[in-house]
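> call design_seq(struct)
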């Protein structure tokens, strides 16, 4: 008689079910946000250029988790583009965003699935965003919010 986990009796059915569950988990693994290899290989490009009006916040979502982002204010020198990572962080009362004046750019190795932009000075603000994407599905990313312990994002 086989003994498992201190039990003196083990049914064949429970062994078969356990074996099937183990095989299913092995056959369909999914890489999560901590899968280091995904950040070490070349990224897939994501590029968008657009204009955002003064006081309007636009969300740009990525189908996969980013490895890096570069964003540039391509508007006039009198325009200011606000950039953040949560809708709540873009609120003036929270101020969890950074600003790019006309012709300024920001590049960083950031793991995110979305960026928020808003025109905060001047009229409409033009911008270009380039992101390098991993092959990690954005559903696998922990939501970046202040309530999840990410301070400084809103």
């Amino acid at each position: 008689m086989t003994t498992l986990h201190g039990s003196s009796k083990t049914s064949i059915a429970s062994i078969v079910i356990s074996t099937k569950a183990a095989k299913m988990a092995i056959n369909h693994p999914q890489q999560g946000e901590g899968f280091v290899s995904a950040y070490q290989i070349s990224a897939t490009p994501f590029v968008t250029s657009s204009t955002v009006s003064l006081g309007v916040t636009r969300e740009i979502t990525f189908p996969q988790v980013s490895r890096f982002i570069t964003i540039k204010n391509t508007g006039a020198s009198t325009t200011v583009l606000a950039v953040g990572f949560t809708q709540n962080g873009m609120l003036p009362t929270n101020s969890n965003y950074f600003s790019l004046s006309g012709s300024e750019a920001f590049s960083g190795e950031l793991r995110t699935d979305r960026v928020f932009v808003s025109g905060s000075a001047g009229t409409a603000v033009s911008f270009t965003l380039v992101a390098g994407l991993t092959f990690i599905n954005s559903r696998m990313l922990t939501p970046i919010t202040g309530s999840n312990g990410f301070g400084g994002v809103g």
